Amino acid sequence: MNGRILNISAVLVSVLMGGIEARAQCQLANPSFEFADNGAPVFAEWNQFGVVGGTGSPVVHGKRSAAVAGPDSGDWAISAFWQALDTAPGERWDVSGRVLHSSLDVLTGSAKGIVNIEWRNAANNLISYESHDVLLPADSADTWHAFSFTTAPAPGGTASVRILLAFLQSPAQESGTVFYDLIEFDRSGPPSREDQQWFDFPGGRVIDFAGHDWRVKGPGVYGPGPSFFGDSVNDVWVDAQGQLHMAIKKFGGTWHSTEVTLEEPLGYGDYIFTTVGRLDLFPANVVFGLFLWQYPYCYDPANPWNLHNEIDVEISRWGNPADDVAQFVIQPYYVTSNITRFDITYSEGELVSYALRWLPDRVEARAWRGGPADESPATTIASWVNTGAYLPRPEQPRVHINFWQLDGPPSNGQNQEVVLNAFRFVPVCVDLLADKQSQCFLACMNGPSTDTPSTCGEYDFDNDGDIDLIDFASQANQLR
Fold first, then answer.
1. How far apart are the first and last CA of the chain?
2. Tens digit of each residue's pLDDT (9 = 90 or more) over 439-459
3. Domains plus CATH for the chain?
């Protein structure tokens, strides 16, 4: 083991096969390495062999990344973290992630970072494999490099597929450490991940609210609830003032709930919603949700982490009239540190804003009286910062807004309506590797800045008094 490894805070250990071999499953578990294991494996659900470890720096997302170094076996050999997932012959897989080597322990000689894909039969025997170079000694150090590829079709007889995040070392026993973070490993489709987001929206209705296109859920019975979600102009509509109205209504003998979803995933940034009026007067079993969410390929209750990339502002007493009316949540809600409840007293016609600032290392949730530009210490109702292990990952979570019935129709038997006055999104410059962030980056570099405690720059390009873009301080080392 090279002594320089310890200087970059990665604790690497040499093992033959750490932990119990993970079962094949339907979806990658612990993909950004936020969950450590109490046993031999460094990370929950990841198997390992060779010289492997975990580190708190460098990271792309959350607080941890995976580190691998050469096994020093004297032959061509690898160290790796790996997982097995269920698959079938003919299926292809989309693979992506981030990889880095540090100037304190760079790759040398023939060493490199590789991602191997192994196809195995029902007896767990290897059928074949493919190998992809993702980091070479010539690649710049101290910079996260993006990699992505689509596998070949799984060969006949395949029952499971393994992804190995590896360090390949030659007989020269080269030094170096390779760091991996933010791994994605999904079936290529059909259906694609994008297709999966719209199965609950068969009606095809699209509305324009706050300068964005939103799809209307339904018609049909879906979760949450489950409820019948209606998509007609009597369920969801935008008025002449540009305000969004969503209803819980009885049509004939059927009670309708409602939901709309932003067509475009916006990524890291500040999501601000503004409502009108007395939301505290809703019946106790009515739920109004403002949230980010991503439909997963499948549900695996054995996986305890945030598979669905969900964070919420929810207005509901959850069936108990004595409860507080509001909560901020990072799913899963049953983790005590993932939820905080608070009360709000509203006035007739009052504007109240709620915000979810989603960043690579935290979520900042706030509520205040007034519109999007009125946030201040004097107007603050509640605020909450979560830096835990369940932070959403920058895959495809989209904004959802829903208004639904918990355990039956509204307890007072009356139709309900909620009004949104505004929605605003302030992007955050955090990742130069993402194409959609490039324009954001150029703006960060060229725009005027006003320093604040939580950001290294806030920019108002049209001089309207509203912040148009935030340059995130913790990623400032990438802004060059």
1. 33
2. 444 444 444 333 333 333 554
3. 3-189 (2.60.120.260), 201-425 (2.60.120.200), 430-480 (no CATH)
